[in-house]
Amino acid sequence: MNIFRFLADLSHMASIVILILQIRKTKSAAGVSYKTQFLYALVFVTRYIDIFFHYVSLYNTFMKIFFVTSTIYILYLMRVQYKPSHDPNIDTFRIEYIIAPSAVLALIINHGYTLYEILWSFSVWLESGAILPQLFMLQRTGEAETLTVHYIFALGIYRLLYIPNWIYRYVTEGRVEPIAFLASLIQTALYSDFFYIYYTKVMQGKKFELP
Amino acid sequence: QKIEDEHDEL
Hints:
The complex is a heterodimer. By secondary structure, chain A is mostly helical. Chain A contains eight helices and no strands. In chain A, helix 2 runs antiparallel to helix 3. The longest helix of chain A has 28 residues, at 146-173. By secondary structure, chain B is mostly helical. Chain B contains one helix and no strands. The longest helix of chain B has 4 residues, at 3-6. The termini of chain B are far apart. The chains are: A mainly alpha, B mainly alpha. The A-B interface holds A 5, 9, 12, 50, 54, 56, 60, 63-64, 67, 111-112, 117, 120, 162, 165, 175-177, 180 and B 1, 3-10.
C-alpha cells in the first residue's frame, strides 16, 4: 500500500459519503444520475464477488463491503426514500452504450477465460464509462449543486491517483496491470473537461455552470 | 506473476 493508492481509496470513500450526505440533507436526489449509481453498483458487485474466496487484507475486505453496501444504499435512497425528487426525464443516457462495449472488451481483453476474470475485466471497463450518464446530465442541466460537483471531483481524483500508484508499483514491485491502467486513462480523460470547469469556476468561488 | 496478485487493489 502506497500513499497514492491510500489517498485514492479515501477520496473514493469521501465521494460516496458526500453523495449520501447531500441526498439526506436536502432530502432530494435532484441532479444525481440514478443510471451512474446503478452502473457503479454493477461495477462493485461484479468486481468484488471474490470477497468470498480471495482474501487480500482486512482493509481490502472492509473497503469492498463499504463500496457495495454504500452504493446499494444510494440506490435505495434514490429509488425508494426520495423517489419523487429524481427526474428520470433528464437522466437519459443509454446505459447499453456502456454495458455492451464493456462486455465485448471483457471477452477480448482479460487475464483468463474464467467467469471471475471476465467479470473482473467487465467491471474495470464498465467503471471507466460509468460516470458518463452523470456528466451527460450535468451537461443537459448546465449547472449543479455544489455537493454534486464535489462528488464528481472526488471521484475523478480517486481515478487520477491510481495512475501514480501503478507507476509507483511498477517501479518498486515490477507489477504491471495493463487492463486497469488503460481503463483508468480513459476514465481520467473523461473527467478532464469537468476538472477544467471545476478549476476555472468552483475554485474561484463561483457556481458550477457550464459555458 | 500470480493471478491473485493482479487483483489486490480495489
